[in-house]
Amino acid sequence: MNAPQPILSPLKAARRARIVAAALQVFLATGYRGATMEGVAAAAGLSKVTLYGYFPDKDAVFAAVAQVVLDRLRDAAFTALAAPGPVADRIAAALVAKHGLFHDLVRASAFAADLLANRDRVRDQAAALDDALIHNMAALLGNDRQARLIFHAAKGVAEAASDRAGIGADIRTLVAALAGIAPA
């Protein structure tokens, strides 16, 4: 579980966001093992001393980057679930949004294997997102088991896909079959 973040002034919050955005690019370009605090500081246009004022070490930076990625995945998935339209379309759109964005942000990196090898560092946060998405899908479907089956099958499809287009087409087909509801 993450420790609560101190309340930052608008200037410090903007600087922290800049650090995290720069760190995301560093991790994607070099992997976890290749990323350094020096590299993150340089990418953010800050001194190492300033960077250490916000994050005690590379693990903390990685956790902050992962949380930003998870927040983006959550926003994309829940926006799609809340959209109007048939249930199967909304569920498929949510899963495509989540897994497609994850593909774009992580799996498309040349260092995806290295980054994913470090996912245990944010396992609890990722599990909370997955549980929330399954819960909301179950509410739409009226069936928790069906929601779990669709969610986990879609995860497998996304992990096996070689590109984003394949993720979208395969997840839509999967949801239509498992939801028993033809998409519009």
Characterization of this structure:
The chain has 9 helices and no strands. 78% of the residues lie in helices and 0% in strands.
Record keyword descriptors for this entry.
184 residues; 9 helices; mainly alpha
- Euclidean distance between termini CA atoms: 40 Å
**Biggest β-sheet description:** none
How many runs of DSSP E, i.e. beta strands?
0
* Rg from alpha-carbon coordinates: 18 Å
The unreliable regions are: none
Secondary structure class reads: mainly alpha
Secondary-structure element pattern, one letter each: HHHHHHHHH
Assign an overall shape.
elongated
Q: What number is the mean pLDDT?
A: 91
Summarize the structure.
The chain has helices at 10-34, 37-44, 48-54, 58-82, 87-107, 112-116, 123-141, 144-160, 164-179.
Describe the secondary-structure layout.
Blueprint: H1 10-34, H2 37-44, H3 48-54, H4 58-82, H5 87-107, H6 112-116, H7 123-141, H8 144-160, H9 164-179
